[in-house]
Design a protein that fits this description.
526 residues; 27% helix; 19 strands; Dipeptide-binding Protein, domain 1; alpha+beta; Dipeptide-binding Protein, domain 3; 3 domains; four-stranded antiparallel β-sheet
Length: 526
């Protein structure tokens, strides 16, 4: 392991090299004042190229989002709005959509954006999804569930046929557009507000303002991103003023509060943590037992003591605080007495007063003991700490948990086989607000083995809802039934933080992968 002094020496050698490099770049870049430039630190140890279709690191996707743009973007209310397209319309049944591109947009190399570029990008994404390159199906693999055919009517009109004729389809069209001739290039050009000036993997990335950006002047003209190998070195760079800002998911960032000289801006990741319950387990097939567990888990305590508030509670498997979220606090309050009453009602009582509830099943005594699976993130024990807290909470109502700490792959096999009772499991939620993969009968991540004709019917209706209002109504119905049936517990979305000495955006909703969202527009964007 490198010593701090070695890391410091390496940093200053790098800084000298970057200073020399910048002096060789065009004169306009050298003339940029400090107010219009940002030196950013992120973790990046494995990214070798810029192509945004097959990212390998979450943090690096934030940089790619400044270089590449999609037909559709999402506003502060998490609603789809036109971006590279100026408008869209759907056929009466919603099976065919027409996207009309803005005229005059060019890629960074000066070539015009056309519908053929959109088609080529989408087809590449679909090919990757069906035939992963090196095991990586890409960041936009879910597009295969939405697009059945895509073509260009002319240079500015894209025609998309879909088997999901609903409002949610628009969210799937936010994938980055690449030139048709560069869809498989390692470092393709984009249309975004920033141009890649220099990129040395594992070292640094220099972005400069795209002076031909179709939205106009770029507020932050220069972004120098220095890559770090660990969060320890990343935080050290911020503490010693080597960088103006850092973007990190590390819990260490929680200790930094906004003050006079720096800001802590939290962003929402796509990672939803759940307490999965096996509905076919003899102990958990009774909904009252599952609800008892829900009432016994003190989520605010876990967030404060384990995650140091670097997570956002979400009782539903959709984004909290958004237009789609149906808040039903009466179902999700911490109430251990109610939990005990539900277990009593389900026939689980502590007959021998040993602290563990029991009942008689098939003429034999059975104790309420649950197999609790946990898998860990590398170099991070926070999920294990959360599991131990949950186990202690359940012990307080007479439920014993035997925790098994497994590797990610081993836990996955156990989840697929149904060889568990409880499991702390995280899911990267898709951009499209449709949690059907977790709740529909026999769907891909329905590890709870939950099956409900009512729920399946609600998702069928959701996927036929063409208006936002109808889509919202069906999403609320899904969440109401989720609260009633308690197939599993939705716990919280993990959060990250941007620690910065420069305020660079006014957007309300910072989220992955756009953790620098609004930096091009600057503070006058609102």
């Amino acid at each position: 392991m490198h010593s701090i002094s070695n890391m410091t020496a390496k940093f200053f050698r790098r800084l000298l090299a970057l200073t020399l490099l910048l002096s060789l770049i065009a004169g306009s870049a050298c003339a940029i004042s400090g107010e219009n430039s940002l030196t950013l630190g992120i973790i990046s140890v494995s990214t070798q190229f810029m192509n945004p279709l097959i990212p390998v690191e979450r943090e690096f996707m934030s940089m790619a989002s400044l270089v590449y743009e999609g037909l559709v973007s999402l506003d502060d209310d998490y609603l789809p709005i036109p971006n590279l397209c100026e408008s869209w319309e759907a056929s009466s049944g919603g099976g065919t959509w027409y996207f009309h591109l803005r005229d005059g947009i060019t890629f960074h190399d000066g070539t015009p954006l056309t519908a053929h570029d959109v088609v080529a990008t989408a087809k590449t994404i679909l090919q990757l999804a069906d035939n992963p390159s090196g095991g990586n199906a890409g960041a936009y693999a879910s597009l295969k569930y939405f697009i059945t055919d895509i073509s260009a009517n002319d240079n500015l009109t894209v025609v998309v046929k879909t088997n999901r004729a609903n409002f949610g389809f628009l969210y799937a069209m936010n994938f980055p557009i690449l030139p048709a001739a560069q869809v498989q290039a390692e470092n393709p050009v984009g249309t975004g507000p920033y141009v890649v000036s220099q990129f040395i993997p594992k070292d640094f990335l220099l972005l400069e303002a795209n002076t031909a950006w179709w939205k106009g002047h770029v507020a932050m003209e220069n972004i120098m991103t220095i890559f770090h190998a660990t969060n320890r070195y990343l935080i050290s760079s911020f503490e010693y003023n080597r960088v103006d800002a850092v973007a990190t998911r590390s819990l260490t960032a929680a200790q930094y509060r906004s003050g006079v000289s720096s800001l802590n801006m939290s962003y929402r990741t796509t990672q939803l943590e759940t307490l999965m319950m096996n509905n076919r387990s003899r102990e958990l097939k009774d909904v009252n037992v599952r609800k008892a567990i829900r009432y016994a888990v003190n989520i605010p305590d876990i967030l404060a003591s384990t995650y140091m508030d670097m997570a956002q509670r979400s009782d539903m498997p959709v984004i909290p605080g958004s237009w789609m979220y149906y808040d039903m606090p009466e179902f999700f309050q911490y109430d251990p007495q109610k939990a005990k009453a539900l277990l009593d009602e389900a026939g689980w009582r502590d007959s021998d007063e040993d602290g563990i509830r029991d009942t008689v099943i098939d003429g034999e005594k059975a104790n309420l003991v649950l197999r609790f699976l946990v898998y860990e993130e590398q170099d991070n024990s926070v999920r294990t700490l959360a599991a131990n807290k949950i186990a202690n909470m359940l012990e307080g109502i007479g439920v014993k948990c035997n925790i098994s700490l497994l590797s990610f792959s081993d836990a996955g096999e156990r989840l697929k086989a149904g060889s568990f009772d409880l499991a702390l499991a995280a899911f990267n939620m898709d951009t499209t607000p449709d949690p059907g993969f977790l709740l529909m009968t026999n769907n891909t991540a329905n590890y709870a083995r939950y099956s409900s004709e009512r729920m399946d019917g609600l998702f069928t209706a959701l996927r036929k809802s063409m208006s936002r209002e109808e889509y919202q109504q069906n999403l609320h119905g899904i969440q109401a039934l989720f609260a009633e049936d308690c197939p599993f517990m939705s716990l919280y979305y993990r959060k990250g933080a941007v620690l910065t000495r420069k305020m660079f955006t006014n957007v309300r909703d910072l989220r992955e992968p756009e953790v620098l969202r609004g930096i091009a527009e600057g503070l006058e964007s609102r």
